[in-house]
Amino acid sequence: MSNCAIVGINWGDEGKGRMVDLLTEKYDYVIRYQGGGNAGHTVVNEYGKFALHLLPSGIFRPGVVNILGNGVALDLENLWNEMQTVVEQGVAITPDSLKISDRASLVLPWHRELDGLEEARLADKKYGSTKQGIAPFYSDKFQKKTIMAGELFYPERLREHLKDLLEWKNLTLTGVYGAEAVKYEDILAWVETYAEKFKPFICDTGKVLKKAVKEGKSILFEAQLGSLRDLDYGIYPYTTSSNAIAAYAPVGSGLPFAKVDQVIGVVKAYSTCVGEGPFVCEWFGEEADELRKAGFEFGAKTGRPRRVGPIDLVATRYGVECQGATDIALTKLDVMSYMDRLPICAHYEKNGEIIDDFPFPAALYDCKPVMEYMDGWKCDISGVRCWEDLPVNAQKYVEYVEKMIGCHIRYVSVGPERDAYIERA
Ligand code: GDP
User: N or C: which terminus of the chain has fewer CB atoms within 10 Å of its end residue's CB?
Assistant: First the structure.
């Protein structure tokens, strides 16, 4: 059977977790292929409401094998806490339902510490890090100075490796930041504690997946964050430190030879953005407060109020292109029900010129939104389950967005619950 990636088209928080939770029914394997616990996927289902940070969203479906691929930032401490929360609510997590790649590298406590120290140093020039250690972690991975999960099975080599890394890391901690040196006994104790807990879950997931492909199993790749936060294609440096786009899914999963057959891009019916960086269509004041309140736009991980604005067709079209999206899931359409008129950022104006191509990051500061408006529908649509029952003005909005971004909107989500959606032909 085919495979599919579910990815964010914009700045993240588009509702990917909700879509993966819905679609996992059709898949045997769900894989997180990049990122760490620095964002939250909110899932509402029969077990309750969850903010998943690192666990793949297929964890709720019996029979689904969930994999944390080699591309993720594996924070064992946070993952363990997250697993306990989910288990406490009645979801079983076993080495059959969760497998961790032996090639995934570990986020160590010093990565989190360094993240905080660097954000403090940057002061008002900060990037808006969630301080989960993700940027220091990926920098170290590229410098080949991390511990891979599989090393936990080789304790003697692990101890030597850890000693070498510690010596190097303490140079930065003490010399650059003037912080306290990390003690070998402390870091070793931390690693050994989590090694015992996680060994049953760690294996050669590439091998598991190759077998699954041979057996014709279906695979779902789950992205964290959106196109505009991708390290190479996003609004650098206000990006994350990994590649969130679908093209990276095979590499970060352990199936480097795989082709992604279907890419479902998740787009929110309006825009939100957490963290710093240029955000052309941003609203301020009352207008923003009203939308933020209607959509409950506060970070799942941080609780931070999200920056909000109207849908940005320029950015969204670019996001669709970067992902090679084959289908779109448009989420949170119900949130716009309070609006008399529907705001759309249709183009950008840059130094007096109308532009439709998403510009180089530094040029975004010179761009202003060019707005269009459509009539609203002003009624509750959260109970609608088929296209024909959607108010005509809601249909027109969806069709207009579809035309402008050049990709079929297959799913329209009208609520956070699993069944609150409309599937279009
Ligand atoms: P993700 O990181 O892309 O999974 O997105 P988040 O979990 O950060 O944010 C999406 C939020 O919107 C969550 O609170 C979801 O429960 C909620 N949500 C998703 N789809 C819909 C929808 O169609 N309508 C409403 N009202 N809420 C939704």
Answer: C
Is-contact 324 263, C-beta < 8 A? yes
Pocket test for ligand 1, best of 224, 328, 331 (most atoms within 8 A of CB): 331
Return the pLDDT at 1.
55
- Residue 131: pLDDT band (50, 70, 90) is confident
Q: Which atom of ligand 1 is nearest to the CA of 39?
A: 2
Pairing of strands 29-32, 65-68: parallel
3-state SS record for 56-88: CHHHHCCCCEEEECCCEEECHHHHHHHHHHHHH
| Residue with token string 């079929």 | 408
Q: What is the pLDDT of residues 384-400, one digit of tens each?
A: 999 999 999 999 999 99
Beta-bridged to residue 422, according to DSSP, are: 412
pTM above 0.90, yes or no: yes
CB burial of residue 219 (10 Å; 0-12, 13-18, 19+) = buried
